[in-house]
Specification:
Elements: H1 2-54, E1 67-72, E2 78-81, H2 96-104, E3 106-112, E4 118-126, E5 132-140, H3 142-148, H4 150-180, H5 197-229, E6 234-239, E7 244-247, H6 249-254, H7 273-283, E8 288-294, E9 297-308, E10 311-321, H8 323-358, H9 367-395, E11 404-407, H10 408-418, H11 420-425, E12 429-434, E13 438-441, H12 443-459, E14 466-473, E15 477-484, H13 506-511, H14 518-528, E16 532-538, E17 542-550
Helix pairs in contact: 1-4, 8-9, 9-14, 10-12, 12-14
The structure holds adenosine-5'-diphosphate.
Adenosine-5'-diphosphate binds next to helix 12 and helix 14.
C-alpha cells in the first residue's frame, strides 16, 4: 500500500508539474506576444507618420535591425521592402493584415514559418494616400522557446522529481502509519481515519460473531468430551485418510496411547487385519463391524462412514468391550457340552442295564442289583437336573423369590439336622455353634448355601473326621463358617472350584454323588446376597469356608444376572 501511495503521489506531483509548466509557458508566451504586438503597433504608427511626411525618403539611411518594413501601394504592389528586392515580391493585397489595414486603417496578423520554428508578427497601417505601411518582427515560437529553455527546465524537473520523491516518501509513510497502528484486537478503540470507522465497526461485529461461534464450538466440544470421556466404550473420529481427529479416554487407554496420536494414522496404533478391513469398508461408504483383541480383552469395532453431501468426510469408530459377552458365550457353550456329557453317562448306564434286562440277559438274582444301579443313576440325573434348574434360576436373579429377614442360625440348625444321617453314614461328626443372627435375604437360597457347604464338608471328609458349622454376628456382618477336617483342596484348584462342573477329583466327586455344581450354586446365591466368600484350606488337614453377609436391613433384591 505504501508503494502505491508513493507512486500515486509522484505521478500526481509530476503531472501537476508538467501541466503547470505547459500552462505557464503558454500564458507567458501569450503575454509577451501581446507586448510585442503593442510595440510593433507603436512603431508602425511612428513609421507611418514618417513615411506620410517624407515619402520614400524616409527609408533612406534608415537603420533597421530585427524589424522588416514594407511599403505597399494601394494596388498591393510593393513600393519598398527592407528585406527583399521589391521586384521579386508578389502582390500583397491578399495578406490578412493588409486587407484589414485597407478596410479599417490598421491591421495585424501573425504567421508561422514552414518549420514552425519561427513566427512573424505583422502590423499594417493605412497612410493618408491609401498606401499601407507594414512592420513585421520575427518571434520565437513556443516550441523554440521550450527548446531554448530545455536546460533550465531539466534542472527544475530534476529538483521537482527529487522534491516529489522525498515528499511522497514522507507522505506515504505518514498516511499508512495510522493504518499500521490499528489495533484490530480492539477495533472500536482506534483513532485512525474517520473513513475507516465503517470498516472497523464491521471488523468488530465480525470478531464478536467469531468469538460467539468459537464459544459455542468450545461448549459443544466440551459437552462432547464430557459425554465421551465418561463412556466405557471407546470412540475415535477419523478423517477420510484414516488420521485420528479425536479420541476419548477409553479409546486412548485401549490403544495404549494419549492425545499425541491425534493427526497420526490409526494403523500406526494397531495394524491388525480386522481393523484395516473394517476401515477400508467404511471408507467406501458402508457400515462395517469386526472383532479385535486389545489390552488382553475382546472388543467389537463398529465403523460408520460420515457423509457430507455425497462425499465421505470421515469415519466414526466405536469400540465395545465384549470380553464378558464372549466369556459368557464360551461358558454357555461349555455348559451345554458339560450338561450333555454329565447326562449322557447315567443315561448310557440306565439304557445298558434296561437293554440287558429286556433281552433276558440278566440272571434273576442280579435283577435287584441292576434295578439298584438304574435307580441310583436316575437319582444322580434328577440331582443334576435339579442343580441345573437351581443355577439357571439364580442366573435369572431369582426375582420371584421373596426376601425377608430370616434367622440364619435357625436355617443352619435345620440344614445340619437334615444332614445328620448323611454325616453318620460317612463316619463324620457334625455340630453347630452360634446364636440367632438376622439376615435380610431369601431363606431358600441361604439354606442352599449352608446345605452345599455342609454336604461338601461331609463328602470330602475322612472317616472319623468332623464338620463344624458356626453362625455369629460381627460388627458389620453376619458370618457363616463351615469347617471340616477333610482332604483339603490343593492351592492350584482353589480359584476354580466355584466354576460349573469343576471338580478337583472327578471320579471321587462322582463316587460321593457330586454334580460339580454345588459351589457354583453357593457362589451365585452368595452374590445375590452381596455376601463375600473366603476359603482357607490345608491339604489333608481340612477346609474352612467363610461366608460374610453384610448387615443391611430390608435390602432391595439384586436383579443383575450373574454368570459363573
Ligand atoms: P461337587 O458336586 O463335585 O461337590 P462342588 O461344586 O460342590 O461340586 O465342588 C467342586 C469341587 O470342589 C469338588 O468336586 C471338590 O473336589 C472340591 N471341594 C468342595 N468342597 C470341598 C471340601 N470341603 N473339601 C475338599 N474339597 C472340596
Amino acid at each position: 500500500m505504501t508503494k502505491r501511495i508513493f507512486r500515486s503521489i509522484n505521478i500526481v506531483a509530476l503531472g501537476v508539474f508538467f501541466a503547470s509548466v505547459v500552462l505557464f509557458m503558454g500564458a507567458l508566451y501569450n503575454y509577451f506576444t501581446g507586448v510585442c504586438q503593442n510595440q510593433l503597433k507603436m512603431q508602425t504608427d511612428l513609421a507611418a507618420q514618417g513615411v506620410a511626411n517624407e515619402g520614400i525618403d524616409y527609408f533612406n539611411d534608415l537603420m533597421i535591425e530585427n524589424y522588416r518594413i514594407t511599403w505597399i501601394a494601394p494596388d498591393g504592389s510593393i513600393l519598398f521592402d527592407s528585406a527583399k528586392d521589391t521586384s521579386e515580391m508578389e502582390n500583397h493585397l491578399e495578406r490578412e493584415e493588409i486587407k484589414m489595414a485597407l478596410s479599417e486603417g490598421y491591421g495585424e496578423s501573425s504567421r508561422y514559418s514552414s518549420t514552425l520554428m519561427e513566427r512573424s508578427l505583422y502590423a499594417a497601417k493605412r497612410l493618408p494616400d491609401g498606401s499601407v505601411l507594414r512592420l513585421s518582427v520575427a518571434q520565437n515560437t513556443i516550441l523554440t522557446l521550450s527548446l531554448g529553455m530545455a536546460q533550465p527546465l531539466c534542472i527544475v524537473l530534476a529538483i521537482a522529481i527529487a522534491l516529489s520523491l522525498a515528499l511522497a516518501f514522507r507522505l506515504s509513510k505518514r498516511i499508512v502509519k495510522p493504518l499500521n497502528e490499528l489495533d484490530l484486537d480492539d477495533p472500536l478503540n482506534n483513532e485512525g481515519y474517520d473513513e475507516l470507522s465503517p470498516l472497523l465497526r464491521r471488523i468488530a461485529s465480525q470478531q464478536d460473531q467469531i468469538k460467539r461461534q468459537t464459544r459455542q464450538l468450545q461448549q459443544k466440544q466440551l459437552e462432547f468430551e464430557t459425554v465421551t470421556s465418561g463412556m466405557n466404550e471407546g470412540i475415535i473420529l477419523l478423517n477420510k485418510k484414516g488420521e485420528i481427529l479425536s479420541l476419548n479416554r477409553a479409546a486412548a487407554k485401549l490403544f495404549e496411547t494419549d492425545t499425541q496420536c491425534i493427526g497420526k494414522d490409526i494403523l500406526s496404533l494397531n495394524r491388525s487385519f480386522a481393523l484395516q478391513n473394517i476401515l477400508s469398508k467404511a471408507a467406501k461408504g458402508s457400515f462395517s463391524e469386526g472383532k479385535i483383541a486389545l489390552s488382553g480383552g475382546e472388543y467389537q469395532l463398529d465403523a460408520s462412514p460420515v457423509k457430507a453431501q455425497d462425499d465421505i468426510s470421515g469415519i466414526v469408530l466405536l469400540i465395545f468391550d465384549i470380553t464378558e459377552k464372549e466369556k459368557a458365550e464360551q461358558m454357555r457353550r461349555e455348559f451345554t457340552a458339560n450338561v450333555s456329557h454329565e447326562l449322557k453317562t447315567p443315561l448310557q448306564t440306565i439304557s445298558g442295564c434296561a437293554e440287558l434286562m429286556k433281552n433276558n440277559m440278566v440272571a434273576a438274582e442280579d435283577i435287584p442289583a441292576f434295578s439298584e444301579k438304574i435307580y441310583l443313576e436316575a437319582g444322580r440325573m434328577i440331582t443334576l437336573v435339579e442343580d441345573i434348574i437351581k443355577l439357571s434360576h439364580l442366573d435369572e436373579g431369582a426375582q420371584d423369590m421373596q426376601r425377608e429377614t430370616v434367622d440364619l442360625f435357625e436355617i443352619a440348625e435345620n440344614t445340619v439336622r437334615s444332614l445328620t444321617d448323611a454325616a453318620k453314614s460317612a463316619g463324620v461328626t457334625l455340630d453347630i455353634t452360634g446364636s440367632t443372627c438376622h439376615v435380610y435375604g431369601i431363606a431358600q437360597l441361604l439354606q442352599g448355601i449352608i446345605y452345599n457347604l455342609c454336604d461338601n464338608a461331609i463328602k470330602y471328609n475322612v472317616s472319623g473326621g468332623s464338620v463344624s458349622v458356626d453362625v455369629h454376628e460381627e460388627k458389620s456382618a453376619v458370618v457363616l463358617t463351615v469347617s471340616d477336617t477333610g482332604i483339603g483342596i490343593p492351592p492350584e484348584h482353589r480359584d476354580r472350584i466355584f466354576e460349573r462342573f469343576y471338580r478337583v477329583d472327578k471320579s471321587h466327586s462322582k463316587e460321593v454323588g457330586g454334580t460339580g455344581l454345588g459351589l457354583s450354586i453357593v457362589k451365585h446365591a452368595a452374590k445375590l446376597h452381596d455376601a463375600k466368600i473366603t476359603i482357607n484350606s490345608v491339604l489333608d488337614a481340612g477346609t474352612t469356608i467363610k461366608v460374610e453377609f453384610p448387615k443391611q436391613e430390608k435390602r432391595q433384591p439384586a436383579i443383575t444376572q450373574q454368570q459363573a
